[in-house]
Amino acid sequence: MDINITQRIVRNFIIFSALFLSLPLYFYCGSKQSTKWHYIMQTFYLPSWLKGKKGPPKNFTGIWYKWYRNGDLYKEAGYKDGQKYGRHLYFGKLKKVELFSLFKNNVPIGEWIYYDENGLIDKTDVYQEGVLRKSFSNYDTSGYCQKCLNYDSNYYLISEVTYKLGKEVSKKDFKPN
Hints:
Layout: H1 2-29, H2 36-45, E1 62-67, E2 73-80, E3 83-91, E4 97-104, E5 107-115, E6 121-128, E7 131-139, E8 145-151, E9 157-164, E10 167-173
Antiparallel strand pairs: 1-2, 2-3, 3-4, 4-5, 5-6, 6-7, 7-8, 8-9, 9-10
């Protein structure tokens, strides 16, 4: 009878140990995108020597998500063949969009819209093939832009336009160096 009890104790100990030791491997080997909790466990709670690669796998295509430690969504980003592609949304602590951006093959394109904590437009940048061409900032409460900065292909500021209620009131041109 003693041998039978000892064998059960040893067997149960081995089973428990195997389960306990496999848990970190499960979180390490499983994709960060399996569940929100995989991402949170792998990012915030595993020791650094057990953490996998940050970001999407090499040839990932689809939507990649990141979360804050509390489980709220931080980022939703499109990828195609491992490169940033399409819409990228960044969310603030208040669960509102802080930045809407666009990419094509890792290159910023189109309008990037920055929002304040109230959900109003704070700034807009316009990219053409990775080059910042215009930057609109200082929006008033009516949604009108009060300042527009224009850039050339070398990122030099070429003009600054000031608006009041959507109408141009002044323009300052700059000569490139």
